[in-house]
Amino acid sequence: MRKHLLSIDDVSADDAATLFATAAEMHDVQRRQVKKLPALRGRTVINLFFEDSTRTRSSFEIAGKWLSADTINITGKGSSASKGESLRDTVLTIAAMGVDALVMRHPASGAALQVSQWVDAAVLNAGDGTHEHPSQALLDAYTLQQRLGSLEGRHVAVVGDLTHSRVFRSNVKLLTKLGAQVTVVAPPTLMPSGVGAWSAAAGFATSYDLDEVLPKADAVMMLRVQRERMSGGYFPSAREYTVGYGLTRDRLRLLGPDVPICHPGPMNRGLEIAADAADAAQSVVLDQVSAGVAVRMAILYHLLAGEETD
Ligand code: NCD
Fold it and tell me: Is the bond preceding residue 266 a cis peptide, omega within 30 degrees?
């Protein structure tokens, strides 16, 4: 693996296999009563979050702690960024304290790449605008592999607000790299512009018809309608969105009983996913969360443990 994790472009299929093997070991550690491993003792990991987060931030923090790193959380709201400090000054200040890794989330696409050019620490992109969220894609693929075995030739439907979704972008890259057949589904207004050329080059399919795609899916990934990133009316009403693109109780019948239902969270229950689907026996939403810790332990381990510590 490279020094940073900025994009799924930094992860080869072999890297993913290595990470998943380590994550499986970490998953065993997670089930123990005493979860500490000494691997990252003496290393410092800063979580720098300029956007809200429940799962990603806490799972990176837990992952670091279980590997014995010192982990510290800094949020945009509670930091000097709210006093007008620039991103560059904020990260140079943090880096000057001697940190080993910076896990960062920022509303601007490309922010993590930019920061990686300013600091010596390893930079892990925990979501940059609508660009990428590579650790999420890794934990999603890990969860699916645990359920389905190899992803080679399996059909994964990725459904929802694709325009605003960094999870979609990272997932399409990783799933296709792992040999899955991917169909992305959205209403025309939430299908990103330029997806036609990208899908042709990367070999995934696009569709506006969820009812047609679901019966053929081996897994379905529902994505959140990201209202906070929307400036205009992308659909007439919440009800209309649900009728066309929600995983409703009726649509659940179109899915095989063992087809895993994923959602990265947070879920808008009743909008993109009905409670019947979110809480169904085939829902893997909470498996994704627990895999999130194991996969992030594996990422931190591979990025940091191999380095010279002198
Ligand atoms: C995602 C994110 O922040 O990109 N959530 C997450 O990390 N679990 C998806 C979302 O916000 O909808």
Answer: yes
